[in-house]
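4.2 Preliminary Data

To establish feasibility before requesting continued support, the project team ran the inverse folding procedure on a target of 109 residues. The structure was first converted into the token representation described in Section 3, and no sequence information of any kind was made available to the design step. The complete token record follows.
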């Protein structure tokens, strides 16, 4: 049950390099070494691996490289998100300010 596998995937925006190493063992122990952004997939990946391997220690290494075009798209999306967040915060501040003035007026009378 000792083994090694390696593959890669490439698109116009992304390169993935995946290595799988397995060592014989009594029980199944899956260890994932993923980019932080892929942590939400951990449960799904472990389930796929448990369907393929019955036992042993399985290490999965995933390296990711984002191409410049994808970085630009992500940067533009982040810029839009920040702009909308700033507008939302301003709107909330204005609401609180108006609400505070109204409450203060009612208490003054």
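Position-by-position output of the design step:
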């Amino acid at each position: 049950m000792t083994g090694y596998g390696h593959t890669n995937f490439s698109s116009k925006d992304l390169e993935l390099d995946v290595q799988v190493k397995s060592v014989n063992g009594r029980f199944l122990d899956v260890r994932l070494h993923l980019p932080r952004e892929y942590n939400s997939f951990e449960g799904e990946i472990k389930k796929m691996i448990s369907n393929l391997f019955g036992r042993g220690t399985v290490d999965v290494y995933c390296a990711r490289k984002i191409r410049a075009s994808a970085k630009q798209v992500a940067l533009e999306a982040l810029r839009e998100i920040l702009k909308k967040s700033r507008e939302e915060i301003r709107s909330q501040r204005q609401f609180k300010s108006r609400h505070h003035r109204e409450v203060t007026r009612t208490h003054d009378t």
